[in-house]
């Protein structure tokens, strides 16, 4: 049974892509994704598609309250229902009752108190999904409803919501002289909403019991070894008796780090001795996984009369929801980047992240950096307006470059071509103005059926300049391992780096093609029998796992070339491999890779570990980041200043990419990031009322559609290679998400004259104030 499932998963991710005549290959080519055809044809199997003989279905009972004490749980009625095989609660967890990637503070099932709407209480396994759902609903839970703490500002004085207290982390950053002041001072208060990752596919998984008393879990994990270790601790099993097999990942921007599927599934499979499958509804997905941290930011910028920044003061308060998750990391990024990619000689930032009874927050692309970017760019617009300086020019006067120092005391040693990026978008031609023509009403904010009038539309142009860190931070051990094998004319890559849509599987093929000149490259499916590679976040796998693949491929290359070099009395550096052929610099040697192998199998395993970082100290100082990526966006918007409706006409972007490894893939990732940022700017906010999630579905959570997407102009990709990164490449996906909301807000300010200090932008914030009002 397990072997059949393994074969199914393998077929979904390892079949080589069809190779047309003269296919592009190697670094710098637009190599098509190996799984592209299967995904577009609808034949690519995800976890929700898996099946096994004797399959049972799981359902989870979740709390209807954001905060309540559990008086009693009665499972007798549910357990007695025909078709029900098992009901599990906190009492049935044999190992660690709590879990968490950074802090083990989240219970597998709530036992004495529930801390957020949708928290798991119990799980059921039955022979039909409807039976499982009915049985879960039949579990009788008596609650004593408690007053929820939903305002993070009140969390400091509220009764502790958790034994660890309400304060998760406080970072006081001190840089420079606190007594310094500027000739011009501007202040602002900013609020960032709760963006949901809203993956294409909701969470799902399949757990299969093993003959040795262990369990195999098939799911869309983005960090399978961490999930395995969490599950093993929960199940009271040795890690080698728990195996995570990664299935197709239907979108991942942080939500796939949640263990809310794997743990109930594994417990039920172990209890029943049957394979158990769970496929979450969209409502369950909204309630269970992590969201972007809602954030309150207070800023005071000091500048001289010429607009040069003198000092930045800020207070940053992040809402973690009920549990810690990756909130400490998000706060570190927010505090470190609170001044943006600008030279600030004096900075004083207070950052806090606290527990509340709101939905859980965690890792979402650009966490921490996105929230502060919206705030510091709002401050730059205010400063430009106060001084009467063009907003782009004000930014240019303060822009950061390589060699400058962050407020954390860390020197920016990587390429930082921020001025070049800003100049590129500033100088790019603006789009044409819309015509006052009824036949082109679709150009108006609100679309074809909108109520707007052309005479009420105002155009605005705004800028956003942002930055993100790459890889983990503050001492995280970033290491990845890869094996490359060559047999005949086929190369195989074995690496536990999960393909989440960021293109790692394609990149791995390109690396091997580049180094070994072999066209047919097979990337093995990921499971925990392979050495760990860490999570798929912050561009890690492009850098660390890609580096490991490159090193392993170069070791195989040396094994392949050394006998030939020795035979002809030359060094291996004088031999080249291209298009499956090995040639010497003088043309004396010319043979194929297959002939050189002569039936042998060559293989090598290598690791990649970037230089170490350090935690921020008690004053927010430290070399916390391996590398930084930058981006500039110019947004053009049309705003109906009577209705407050906004249409983003165009976003022009210039980005610091280090080196373009796959042009088509790079463009797609940038466009996707800008569109996600568009949602954060205009529509996406998971709304709550007293901690209760309102309408947790796509009728209540508004994602931007293709009709909302603007023209995207990738004006410039600066390829200034980072010498410490494999291939010199930088992370691509996150920094457009970070920067585009700030640019859109800036453009709406320019169109309306309003402060626009909240994301997403509400209609009332985009209504222009009448002259003289």
Automatic annotation (TrEMBL):
<dbReference type="InterPro" id="IPR000674">
    <property type="entry name" value="Ald_Oxase/Xan_DH_a/b"/>
</dbReference>
<feature type="domain" description="Aldehyde oxidase/xanthine dehydrogenase a/b hammerhead">
    <location>
        <begin position="41"/>
        <end position="147"/>
    </location>
</feature>
<dbReference type="InterPro" id="IPR046867">
    <property type="entry name" value="AldOxase/xan_DH_MoCoBD2"/>
</dbReference>
<dbReference type="InterPro" id="IPR037165">
    <property type="entry name" value="AldOxase/xan_DH_Mopterin-bd_sf"/>
</dbReference>
<dbReference type="Pfam" id="PF20256">
    <property type="entry name" value="MoCoBD_2"/>
</dbReference>
<dbReference type="GO" id="GO:0005506">
    <property type="term" value="F:iron ion binding"/>
</dbReference>
<dbReference type="Pfam" id="PF02738">
    <property type="entry name" value="MoCoBD_1"/>
</dbReference>
<dbReference type="InterPro" id="IPR016208">
    <property type="entry name" value="Ald_Oxase/xanthine_DH-like"/>
</dbReference>
<dbReference type="InterPro" id="IPR008274">
    <property type="entry name" value="AldOxase/xan_DH_MoCoBD1"/>
</dbReference>
<dbReference type="InterPro" id="IPR036856">
    <property type="entry name" value="Ald_Oxase/Xan_DH_a/b_sf"/>
</dbReference>
<dbReference type="GO" id="GO:0016491">
    <property type="term" value="F:oxidoreductase activity"/>
</dbReference>
<protein>
    <submittedName>
        <fullName>Molybdopterin-dependent oxidoreductase</fullName>
    </submittedName>
</protein>
<dbReference type="Pfam" id="PF01315">
    <property type="entry name" value="Ald_Xan_dh_C"/>
</dbReference>
